[in-house]
């Protein structure tokens, strides 16, 4: 079994399906801005997770497509708005929505996608009570994401964040949508209570290891070039697990360097470089890597109660992929 | 029957009810920003319309409270985001959300309210299929509002807008939420198809006369002072019905003044004053007033098929209020 080909097979089916929610329309600025990110690529991990979760309880993955679309559209909405809030100019190597279409259109396009996401749910062929439950779960998920994003912004203004606070933040900001993907897929597939619960837990751990590995990759892939993004993250005081660990454990000279440079918008390139070296020497990068691997193990453990299936194997591979990928 | 006391009675009940969706919470910035506009006042016209529509088909208005809350929260969300897009600093005489809490928090607070609005719907005690229909209608309403807002922004960049285009824009941006208020109230109240349809039409006409009267008030209440807002609207090229009518019918010197001043961000105070005088002399202000009154008549006409009730009388008064109010 090859994860990439399994992913591609389902992403192709999904990409064909969700186009119906992303047609051109008028006013053109609104529709074009709303289509920009969804049609600009992406791995479709969330719909993939929905499908696999459904398959792992021996349900029909095709039935999940509207739900996968709702989540992927909701994900696009959060990206469009997050990029404005975080002043990010690039997304998946293309200009962010607000860079290409201006901020008003980007705000509005996000709102439009938000509504479209709920609209996609109406194409689900499920019992009305299940529709209602999934609708409620999606709402709670977005409230979580909003809280996570605000925490993320708040953290930039604070000196010390505990690891627990950091995990709580990414649980909301990143893992919440993963959780709902797995939960919804299992419910639509007719999974029993234990299966739904196990798959939901799996996805939470997967989301956490994914996000922490992302932080690790951002740093390690920039090791030689020390790219602009890392410099910005250090100057903005962005609280990744690596930063959280360093800030909590630094003493003496290390503490002094962090105090001077981390979160200092006018820090020099040399200062940024010293923080980066410090991250390595304090073992913070290794610590993040280790933590991601622990969540990966927990993710796979929760799958044990599921009956054996190809989907179960793919879910295990997906967990491993979350801590093996290099981009 | 006194409209203001009928309005106050229902607004008081509503204000007490919807507090449950607007509690304090953490992260505080997000919750405070989300509570800012809803708790900052407002006439509660939309919940009022929901209740009256329900009462006019002899339903129990208390049952509509979650739906009224959903619409009023959705209305708050649109105000929070619109003020960012339109660069408006004040709303109901208090600072706009983005002025008080910063733009990132205002974007996020809007998103949060959006989700809360859908959450409120879950407190409705209605059949699941009716829940699903109202949920779908709310989604379509927001898509309409987004399109209306984009059209409004697009119109500022265009020289000539037809009256039809203008009416289409405010039908989406303003009247859509009025329509849904009346439709939802009638459905929750158990109205028959004809009643639901008549009340929906009533609310569309009401929304149109309301918006046009707003444009008229903005101009006429500024007649003596020629306040900053009117100056801004003229300099931004804001397409009210008054402007649309003037731009379509101006010839000779009038056309020349409009070409020079209207939509010219650096127009002089004297230029603005000349445009204002031109609006009056061309009869554009009277035309807008007349149009609002026509919609008012249509609104009242659609009520004829309803059985007589106190609610029906209040709805008639509300229509008249839309073209009598002075602020």
What are the defining features of this structure?
homodimer, 327 residues, mainly alpha, Farnesyl Diphosphate Synthase, two-stranded antiparallel sheet, 15 helices, 2 strands
Description:
Two copies of one chain form a homodimer. With 327 residues, chain A is mostly helical. Chain A has a single domain (3-321), classed as Farnesyl Diphosphate Synthase, CATH 1.10.600. The first copy, chain A, has 15 helices and two strands. A two-stranded antiparallel ribbon of chain A has the order 1-2. In chain A, a hairpin with a 2-residue loop joins β1 and β2. The longest helix of chain A has 29 residues, at 128-156. The radius of gyration of chain A is 20 Å and the shape is globular. Chains A and B meet through α4, α6 and α7 of A and α4, α6 and α7 of B.
Oligomer: homodimer
> How many structural domains in the coordinates of chain A?
1
Strand content of chain A: under 5%
Estimate the helix proportion of chain A, in percent: over 70%
Brief account:
The structure is a homodimer of 327-residue chains. By secondary structure, the first copy, chain A, is mostly helical.
Layout of strands and helices, then pairs:
The structure is a homodimer of 327-residue chains.
Chain A: H1 3-18, H2 28-36, H3 45-56, H4 65-85, E1 90-91, E2 94-95, H5 97-101, H6 103-121, H7 128-156, H8 163-188, H9 193-220, H10 228-236, H11 241-249, H12 252-261, H13 269-281, H14 284-302, H15 310-322
Antiparallel strand pairs in A: 1-2
Helix pairs in contact in A: 1-3, 2-6, 3-4, 3-8, 3-15, 4-6, 4-7, 4-8, 7-8, 8-9, 9-14, 11-14, 12-13, 14-15
């Amino acid at each position: 079994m090859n994860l990439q080909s399994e992913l591609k097979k389902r992403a192709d089916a999904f990409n064909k399906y969700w186009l119906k929610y992303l047609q051109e329309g008028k006013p053109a600025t609104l529709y074009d801005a709303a289509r920009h990110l969804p049609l600009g690529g992406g791995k479709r991990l969330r719909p993939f997770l929905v499908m696999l979760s459904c398959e792992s309880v021996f349900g029909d993955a095709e039935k999940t497509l509207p739900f996968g679309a709702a989540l992927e559209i909701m994900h696009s909405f959060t990206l469009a708005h997050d990029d404005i809030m975080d002043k990010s100019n690039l997304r998946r190597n293309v200009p962010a929505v607000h860079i290409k279409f201006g901020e008003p259109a980007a705000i509005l396009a996000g709102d439009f996608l938000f509504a479209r996401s709920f609209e996609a749910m109406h194409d689900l062929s499920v019992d009305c009570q299940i529709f209602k439950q999934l609708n409620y779960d999606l709402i709670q998920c977005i409230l979580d994401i909003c809280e996570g994003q605000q925490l993320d912004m708040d953290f930039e203004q604070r000196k010390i964040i505990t690891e627990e606070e950091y995990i709580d933040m990414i649980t909301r900001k990143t893992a919440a949508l993963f959780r709902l993907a797995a939960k919804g897929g299992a419910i639509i597939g007719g999974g029993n209570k234990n299966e739904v619960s196990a798959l939901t837990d799996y996805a939470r751990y997967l989301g956490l290891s994914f996000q922490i590995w992302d932080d690790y990759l951002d740093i390690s892939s920039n090791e030689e070039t020390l790219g602009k993004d890392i410099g910005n993250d250090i100057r903005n005081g962005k609280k990744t697990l690596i930063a959280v660990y360093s800030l909590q454990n630094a003493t003496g000279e290390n503490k002094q360097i962090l105090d001077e440079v981390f979160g200092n918008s006018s820090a020099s390139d040399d200062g940024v470089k010293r923080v980066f070296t410090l991250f390595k020497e304090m073992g913070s990068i290794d610590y993040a890597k280790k933590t991601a691997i622990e969540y990966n193990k927990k993710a796979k453990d929760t799958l044990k109660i599921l009956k054996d299936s190809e989907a179960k194997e793919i879910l295990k591979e997906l967990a491993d992929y979350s801590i093996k990928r290099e981009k």
